[in-house]
């Protein structure tokens, strides 16, 4: 199994990318509310995602008020989708191991006892 993408896997960044993958774009306050991150934490994560090319950030003024909008890039969509696929594969592998162990345990329980009476 491939190693998980550490940049995407971090909970705050995964939350940001997941939200952005379901909308065309989002403003900073919407992302803050949706993810529950503080302004500083959100800003830090967005910078890392932007540096990696996973999001595009646009800053402008609307009626003299700053407005920051964020859009996920195609690379960001691909890496987020790949990450969720890897998590699903991990889940399936764990379920298969669990089912195999349960089956082995059931076979051992059903086997006749080999203990001789004293």
Strand proportion? 15-25%
CATH H level, superfamily name:
Winged helix-like DNA-binding domain superfamily/Winged helix DNA-binding domain
SS field, number of helical segments: 5
Helix fraction bin: 55-70%
Looking across the biggest beta sheet, what order are the strands in?
Answer: 1-3-2
| CATH top-level class | Mainly Alpha
Count of domains: 1
Nearest-integer average pLDDT:
91
CATH architecture: Orthogonal Bundle
Q: What is the CA-CA span between the terminal residues?
A: 51 Å
According to CATH, the fold-level topology is Arc Repressor Mutant, subunit A
Helix/strand order: HHEHHEEH
| Rg calc | 23 Å
Largest sheet: 3 strands, antiparallel
Net shape: elongated
Report the uncertain regions: none
By secondary-structure content and strand pairing, the structural class works out as alpha+beta
Strand segment count = 3
